[in-house]
Design brief:
The chain has 164 residues and is an alpha/beta fold. 30% of the residues lie in helices and 23% in strands. The protein is built from 4 helices and 8 strands; from the N terminus they run ββαβαβαββββα. It has helices at residues 18-35, 52-63, 77-87, 155-163; strands at 7-11, 14-17, 43-46, 67-70, 91-94, 109-111, 135-141, 149-154. A 4-stranded parallel β-sheet has the order 4-3-5-6, covered by helices on one side. Helix 1 crosses helix 2 (52-63). The radius of gyration is 16 Å and the shape is globular. The two termini are 26 Å apart.
């Protein structure tokens, strides 16, 4: 808020200021809550390669109070379906560069490439009630049996890790 016009993100030839980043994150959060009925604790997967949209997606999911879960575009379709089923995902975020194979997964998909272009004039929304005990994200381990295992990370645990 002190420096809204300073650059917050740079990737290759793209950049966003803090003001632009906040605007995109708020719009995505609004769309998740009001158009896709995402609630605190719902799992939203993200199927994106490294990009500015990936950062917007992560922050938008967290701002909506949902649980961020990354999916790798390099994984085969059958593994993606297993991961999505295991976490009971409500939605998968993609962008225009995401491989099209994800459309075969049995979960609704939202292309976030065009959300920042929408003209939602009223982004008024009530703050979501996220506590330190809420789950912030889920990561997958390879598991000792070769079957991916979902590991839940709470906001409290993540903040403890960041602060150490």
């Amino acid at each position: 808020s002190q420096h809204p016009d300073k650059v917050a993100l740079i990737l290759d030839d793209q950049s966003l200021t803090y003001h632009q980043l906040l605007g995109r994150v708020q719009r995505l959060s609004y769309v998740l809550i009001h158009e896709h009925r995402i609630r605190v604790g719902d799992v939203v997967c993200q199927y994106l390669d490294r990009s500015i949209e990936m950062i917007v997606g992560i922050l938008g999911i967290l701002m909506a109070g949902a649980v961020y879960t990354p999916l790798s575009p390099s994984d085969p379709l059958d593994r993606l379906q297993v991961l999505v089923d295991q976490v009971h995902a409500k939605l998968i975020l993609i962008n225009q560069h995401s491989p099209s194979q994800i459309s075969s997964v049995s979960v609704p998909i939202l292309d976030i490439s065009h959300i920042h272009q929408s003209s939602s004039s009223s982004l008024n929304q009530e703050p979501v009630d996220v506590t330190p005990e809420c789950i912030s994200h889920i990561v997958f381990t390879s598991g000792s049996t070769g079957v991916p295992k979902a590991v839940q990370i709470r906001h409290r645990n993540f903040m403890d890790y960041v602060q150490t």
